[in-house]
Every structure is written in C-alpha cells, then in structure tokens.
Design a protein that fits this description.
two-stranded antiparallel sheet, Four Helix Bundle (Hemerythrin (Met), subunit A), 7 helices
C-alpha cells in the first residue's frame, strides 16, 4: 500500500492546526476564568532561550503553509507575524486553514522527486526532494512547534490533554 504526498501532508496540517485552535481557545478561557492576564500565557516560554507561545504558533503556521505551497509548486503566502492576542492567533489559524483548503491532491501528488531549495544562495542552502522535504524537514518542524505550543499552555495550568492535541481525525 502506498500513501500519497497529499494524504501525508495537507490533512495532517489541517487536523493539528484545528486542534491547536481548540487548545488556544481553552488557553484563552483559562486566562479569563482565572483572572490571568492573557499575555502571561501568550508570552510564556518553557525556558528563556525558547520562543514564546505566540511565536511557536506563528512558526507552526509557517511550516504548514510553506510546506503546503511548496508541495503544490506555488509560492508560499507571506504573513507579517504581528499577532499579539489569542484572537489574532485564531485569525492566523483561520487564514492558513483557508489557504490549505485551496490545495488539491492534483497539485501535490506526483511531485515526490521535484527539488525544493531551502535558503537559496546562502551557506545554509539545502536541496531536497519534495518527499524528503515533507517527511524529514517540514513535518518534524511542524510537530515540534505545535507540541511546544500545547506544552506551554499545559505547563501553565490549562486543562488540555492528548485528545485536545490530536483534534478530530
């Protein structure tokens, strides 16, 4: 049995971004119910050298939209990363989910060996097949940042569990 590039990517991104939206909603509700300033959660870090919650969400979104676009052979949409509130993050998630909804299996499948160049023209330039880019670069990065966003809220007392992280599948 084989799995298509589309099936291994776009539905996975959508599942976890929708779940992240739910986790953020629980974070906002927790802040409200406990009289916690939202920034206490939005700016939370697991360790001083790690990005805060807002940035973790932005990076997760960047990997989902960037990978989706590159797999489809189109230019990734550019977002400004100016989000500062739970509402801003929800709007960002809605925007990227809408973008992912425009991508079709026909755009993605059959491109497994097409080359993707990351950081072109720099010392960090990497050339990867589309399949390698997805499975060994994009998905691990995406999962890392979604998991870290979840962990930040859980660490700060938001009552979320594995079902919240996984979302609907």
């Amino acid at each position: 049995m084989t799995i298509s590039l589309y099936a291994a990517s776009i539905p996975v991104f959508k599942q976890l971004l929708n779940a992240l939206s739910g986790v953020l909603a629980k974070g906002e509700a927790h802040a409200t119910s406990k009289n916690i300033q939202p920034d206490a959660l939005l700016q939370a870090r697991l360790f001083p050298d790690m990005f805060q919650l807002v940035r973790q969400v932005q990076i997760a979104v960047d990997f989902a939209k960037g990978a989706g676009a590159r797999l489809a052979g189109i230019e990734p949409p550019k977002y400004e990363d100016t989000e500062t509130t739970f509402g801003d993050l929800q709007a960002l998630l809605t925007k990227v989910l809408s973008f992912l909804d425009t991508l079709t299996p026909e755009q993605v499948n059959g491109n497994e060996e097409r080359e993707i160049v990351l950081r072109p023209g720099t010392d960090k330039e990497k050339r990867l097949s589309t399949q390698t880019y997805l499975l060994h670069y994009s998905l691990p990065q995406f999962f890392f940042h979604v998991t870290t966003a979840y962990d930040l809220l859980r660490h700060n007392g938001v009552e979320v569990g594995k079902r919240d992280y996984m979302g609907n599948y």
